[in-house]
Amino acid sequence: MGMGEDFLVLGGKKFSSRLLVGTGKYRNMGECASAIEESGAEIVTVAVRRAEIAGPQLEDFIDPKKYTFLPNSAGCYMAEEAVRTLKLAREMGGWNMVKLEIIGDRETLLPNMPETLKAAEILAREGFAVMAYSDDDLNMAGRLEDAGCAAVMPLAAPIGSGLGILRPEKLQKIIAQAKIPVLVDAGIGTASDACIAMEMGCAGVLLNTAIAEAKNPVLMARAMRQAVESGRAAHLAGRMKKSAMAAASSPIAGIMN
Length: 257
Fold this sequence. Notes:
By secondary structure, the protein is an alpha/beta fold. The protein has one domain: Aldolase class I (TIM Barrel, Alpha-Beta Barrel), CATH 3.20.20.70. The protein has helices at 29-39, 56-59, 79-93, 113-125, 138-146, 168-177, 191-199, 209-212, 217-237; strands spanning 8-10, 13-15, 19-22, 43-47, 68-72, 97-100, 129-134, 151-154, 183-185, 204-207.
């Protein structure tokens, strides 16, 4: 497969970029727009409860005809309010593909998985393409898939922490089991974290803080784009086998003594 034929498929749509980015925490909307442009992302997440998703402030800088908006239920703590928020987003802009995010508490911002599963089942029944933010529990990832989610999005580390992939073995198990796309969401801190996630076989990476809070967000956005592309290429290429023993890179047969 050539890289030109390698699409990310979400909600029945094909995307060339496997990097999804958010719109929060930037110094200003101009910087946000420049970073998104440099990232090469085609999907942009917007927190419905924290932004005027169809308002002029956002659309003046980020063209909804160029980017796919991904409404997200950030700030919700229960299934009922998350479902209501995402239904409102669909009414406002016709967005059918949504990011489901339900937080357990304000301190850790870790996902509330029982409420997430409950909301995912309701939204999937009502025709939403649900991308569910989750913990890195293998069983829960499987239950979200069974509930009809279009993608599962396990965290690499707590939201906004920048700690990178803390438990790669758990993420690898989810990837191996899943029949739907697995995208890392939360905890990515720098380009190498994104590259590692893609090398492991993730279908994509969603991030915000790592770009928005970089000293140079536009340059970091470029680095993230390159990292995701490089990691995906490495995954498709198939890495060499690891060995506990050294192996010469040049053949020794036929060498004159």
